[in-house]
Amino acid sequence: LISSFDNVLYNNGKLLVSSYGKIGEREPEEGEILEYEEQLWIYGEKLYWLSLDGTLEEITGYAPMEIPEELKIPENAQEQSSNSYMAKMLLDANGDIITLESCYVNWYDGPDDLEMYSDEWWNAGYYEQYYHSEEHYYLRRLAADGSELSCVSLDAMKEASDSEYFYVNNMVVGPDGKLYIASDMCVFVCDM
Question: Is 147 helix (H, G, I), strand (E, B) or coil?
């Protein structure tokens, strides 16, 4: 079930659309109490071709960005989450799909003597000391069937931006064929 389209591109009488939603289900953990049906759902991005007559065809070769091994959350973390998200997509002259995707991980590895997010927890400085979060961006080139042709980390751009926060929010192809990637107060120019 598609609840919304996140990205939409027109190409040769069809729309290339991305949608964030259910992509699978996980097994319940031992002793886990199920409070609602969606509790076991796994969420991620899907790609579709949408014909102008309303026919929807999933691009089954596409898989959401996997959280890279170097971003895996430590095993001793108490509260943790990870997610990947497609911020932007475009088509190049060859029909390849170019995506700008992010991977976000956060975890807490501090003591459990105070209730998380309580006033005492905040006052003890546990958030600043033991709560960690990282976001990394990747540029992926996909074949028309969704299979990955290449994946490049944008961490070098993060370092070059010399900004405390790095948020990549857009990209376009210029008339010169170069890729322009916008983040905060910087625009990076890359060869396709």
Answer: coil
Q: Please work out, in degrees rounded to the nearest 5, the angle formed at the alpha carbon of residue 54 by the alpha carbons of 49 and 59.
A: 20
Taking a C-beta distance cutoff of 8 angstroms, is the pair 49, 9 a contact? no
Separation CA 192–CA 177 (nearest Å): 7
Among 37, 91, 24, smallest CA distance to 63 is for 24
pLDDT in tens, 116-149: 788 888 888 888 888 888 888 899 999 999 999 9
State pTM to two decimals.
Answer: 0.79
Helices (H), 10-125: 119-123
Please answer whether residues 101 and 135 qualify as being in contact, where contact means their C-beta atoms are separated by less than 8 angstroms: no
Backbone angles phi, psi at 76, to 5 degrees: -85, 5
Residues 10, 13: Cα–Cα separation, whole Å: 7
